[in-house]
Structure formats: C-alpha cells, structure tokens
Amino acid sequence: MKMLYILIMTIPMLFFGSIQGYAQPKECPVLSELEKTSIKDKKEVIKALNTLIPKTYGKLDEFPDIYTKWNVVTAKPFPKTVGNKDEEDYFGMAKTFCGKEIAEKSWLVRLDFPKAPGANLAQGQIFLAKSKEKGWFVWFRYH
Is residue 113 exposed (0-12), middle (13-18) or buried (19+ Cβ within 10 Å)? Predict the structure, then answer.
C-alpha cells in the first residue's frame, strides 16, 4: 500500500513541470535589504499574513474558497526552530537555498487550511523576511 502511494505521488511529478517550481525559490532575498526581526514581531507577522497568504496562494479553479481560511500552526524566526525536528528541517532548507545569513533573518510560517479537501492542499509552509523598505514578503512557498 505504501509503495502504491509513493508511485501515485511520484509519477505525476515526472510529467508536470509546474510541480518542479516549488523545488527552490525563484530568487533569494538581498541580505542588505533585510531588517533584523525577533520573536517579538510575531503579531506583526500574523497581521501581514492577511495580505501575504492571498497573494501567495491565489485561488484554485476547482476549489475557489480553499485558501480563504487558515490557521497558523507555527510562526517563528528560523533560529527559534532549532530543537524542533519538524521545523528545524525547514531551517536547513532555507540555509541551503539562500545561505545562513538570509535564513537567520527569515521566518517559518506553517499553515493549516481547514477548507482543503485533502492533506496535500491542507498544509502550507512559507518562508518570510522583512524588507527595510517594503515590509514583510514571502520569498519561498514550499506547499
């Protein structure tokens, strides 16, 4: 059964190039343009999600309301994920993608979308940073 699941998930990835777009960010943030933040900025991050999530996730034709409601599972600076295996792996991804300095000035936001029809669409992970001039922005969407 597990092998069947792996095949069902893997085969479409071989044929649909758009899935590959989530493998890494289109471009990394510029370190000198990032503002230093801390866990004290969590309320600000949560508020920014009201505009960032609709911009990042958009709408799916077959499920137009799927991303209109969400719950924040995690919202913390990447250095605060150390020690939590589920979250620390994302910190490793961020460091691999854009380097340690960018990752240390970025946040992990894990989301749950309760209107989603399945587990794949129900989870979201985004990497955020704060620009000195433009405020909060998503620089990578994993799911």
Answer: buried
Cα–Cα distance for residue pair 102/38, rounded to 1 Å: 14
Residue with more model confidence, 39 or 122: 39
Dihedral sign of CA atoms 116, 121, 122, 127 in order: negative
Q: What is the pLDDT of residues 37-74, one digit of tens each?
A: 999 999 999 999 999 999 999 888 887 788 899 999 99
Q: Which residues pair with 126 in a beta bridge?
A: 109, 141
- Strand stretches in 1-134, DSSP E: 71-77, 106-112, 123-131
**Gap between the Cα atoms of 109 and 76, Å rounded:** 7
